[in-house]
Amino acid sequence: MTTLSVFLDVPLAQKLEGSLLKTYKQDSCPKKIFLAFRGRYLTSKGQPWVSSVVPKMRLQIAQDPSLNYEYLPVNGMRSFTEASLKLLFGKHNQVIVENRVGGVHTVGDNGAFQLGAQFLKIWRKDSQTVFIMSSKKGELLCKMGMTEDPSLLFPNGVYLQQAPHDSIFVIGNICDCNLTQSHPTSNKRIFLFFDISSQGLSTGDLEKDTGFLQYFVSQGFEFFCSQSLSKTFGIYDEGVGILVVVALNNELLLCVLSQLMKLTQALWLNPPITGARIITSILCNPALQEEWKQSLKGLVENIMLIKEKVKEKLRLLGTPGSWDHITDQNGSHSYLGLNSKFQQVEYLVRKKHIYLPKNSRINFTCINAHNIDYITQSINEAVLSTKGLD
Amino acid sequence: MTTLSVFLDVPLAQKLEGSLLKTYKQDSCPKKIFLAFRGRYLTSKGQPWVSSVVPKMRLQIAQDPSLNYEYLPVNGMRSFTEASLKLLFGKHNQVIVENRVGGVHTVGDNGAFQLGAQFLKIWRKDSQTVFIMSSKKGELLCKMGMTEDPSLLFPNGVYLQQAPHDSIFVIGNICDCNLTQSHPTSNKRIFLFFDISSQGLSTGDLEKDTGFLQYFVSQGFEFFCSQSLSKTFGIYDEGVGILVVVALNNELLLCVLSQLMKLTQALWLNPPITGARIITSILCNPALQEEWKQSLKGLVENIMLIKEKVKEKLRLLGTPGSWDHITDQNGSHSYLGLNSKFQQVEYLVRKKHIYLPKNSRINFTCINAHNIDYITQSINEAVLSTKGLD
Hints:
Chains A, B: Keywords: Aminotransferase, Pyridoxal phosphate, Transferase. Chains A, B: Its cofactor is pyridoxal 5'-phosphate. Chains A, B: One of its GO terms (biological process) is aspartate biosynthetic process. Two copies of one chain form a homodimer. Chain A has two domains: about 20-50 and about 300-385, Aspartate Aminotransferase, domain 1 (Alpha-Beta Complex); about 70-285, Aspartate Aminotransferase, domain 2 (3-Layer(aba) Sandwich), CATH 3.40.640. In chain A, about 40% of the residues lie in helices and about 15% in strands. Chain A has helices at about 20-25, 55-60, 80-90, 95, 110-125, 140-145, 205-210, 210-220, 230-235, 250-265, 275-285, 285-315, 325-330, 345-350, 370-385, and strands at about 35, 100-105, 130-135, 145-150, 155, 155-160, 170, 180, 190-195, 225-230, 240-245, 335, 355, 360-365. Chain A has a seven-stranded mixed sheet with strand order 2-11-10-9-7-3-4, with helices on both faces. A three-stranded mixed sheet of chain A has the order 5-6-8, with no helix packed on it. In chain A, helix 6 (about 140-145) links the parallel strand 3 and strand 4 (about 145-150). In chain A, helix 3 packs across helix 11 and helix 14 (about 345-350) crosses helix 15 (about 370-385). The N and C termini of chain A lie far apart (about 70 Å). At the A-B interface, helix 2, helix 5 and helix 10 of A face helix 2, helix 5 and helix 10 of B.
């Protein structure tokens, strides 16, 4: 009997791993450096950063005999979502006071985006146009049938009042897009979906990093945020996220949350608890919360220090051009300002075994005392090698 | 400015919580008992059961300074999927030897089913008919557009050779369905999706519980299993699951896994690690694995003991009818054999505050020394109250 496979028509999917990381891994040169790690922070020793308060809490939880390991409800750990919403908006924000913000505990920020996207597909069927800014997650909406329209995205801003009715904006890094709004747009039912993956790691100040949300609250917008809390605590492997919902009033909020719960039930039923338990224990204890905030601040200061050093070393090497943009940018991931057209990036990859993306946006925590000289000297060489080409 | 909510058309979804549990919670009677908890086992003290080996391992992991908390790959923790596949099929099974079984580490068995369903929706578009046996998960496929056909499901079997081409069978409890197959059906491209939520907790013997898989392997079937490992270790709150793929050869397997990884990336990107880490540490250590197996066995023996006691107490009370079916059934969840038509179930719920579903399938671990007398006396009353009605 010859048997026909039911999988006969299934082709091999392209590797998910970016080709840059793949080439890096295949490179046998001992000097090779990868500067494009996403969504994680490295210590000066090249290890994944963990907030100092996390290991203590992990141990305390493992030793706590009073905990039980029952299923979480479908919408997750309530104390966790409550603590996270206060962190995101500030305790006294009007959406909290007016009881019109809520959250569903999800499997990381990707799970949160997936959940939000499924909701929009069902309940915002008329939204055919999506504008995606500084976020990879928005692609999911395109795969679900929406059309990406880049027409309203200008280098320094987005004009909301030109957006069509019922359009959706997915916004990864608010700093990258200055949303200008000279006319009221609320009657256009524009929907915003913020992707907030590392509150506090842009400026080192939690409130400052998400202060922009207040603007949209005050303008009467309703929106979703897919929020990750894994990264800011250094619990990368637990996938702790929230889908945040801001609605105009409590009644609408409850309707949206109830529909989200139905979707969550099919997605994973109950979210995993460990990461949320660690984070909630920290956020609900003022002393631990303070220690965590200090550790975040320390991380951000260290990032700024690395950037300063890179800039200073390039100055001492006499590298042509201004390098102020390096320290002008917030956060761990910033543009180095190299020129792909003049093959400066390619020079670094091919000749120096330093791997970075074409747009030269790198993770500065990948630079440390051991590799900074090699990296800055290589940048200098790359720039000199293309001098005069502009 | 009046603002129109973008959520105006979103109605309140019906509560997910079953109405039975809801009524139970609202019942203020101190005698109330809930016998319908799903997917968890209670100890004789009414607490969620945890395998004795889990707390030790939890502590050991929290104290291990060598662990890092980096993201898992999209397909999850490799040592975890490998150990789980060996557990499911046995180390020397031909699908393992021939390298044509693989797994994707998922967020619980619901996550595994969601992932498998998404795959089938894309790659088995022609499968319009689904037969769902003893599984709640199959409903997801109906929501995705497939039609449920109960025509081939008979009380004691399913006739695979009568199934239409390209149909899908979702099978929750293999004991409930005797799949008979007198003619070869492989050329019909019938696809099986097993939902295995508690290997070892049916008979107390891990191998025996999943021995039926060997039959389908030997008949040349390809299939998926959505497997939960949370329940058999008592780590209910971590959602540890696997989507298992059996293909006819390694090449086909790799194609399917590669497509599943693409879907996983959008669903949650990286699965959470804690549960998988605990389970892998136990499965990879022969002494701990043995201790775990013993704890499973103890749990199953306890379930059998409860069932024996219930039967014996009903016999002593002189309750009319035979109650052998209670001990004839395997596992924690079994039919009590009460009659919904004669309102025996309703009698228990309304008059006795004992909550059980209409089909009288209860979780026997909810019965313990404190409530067994009240429960059996109430069953006796319920049966007597409807005597003569048949």
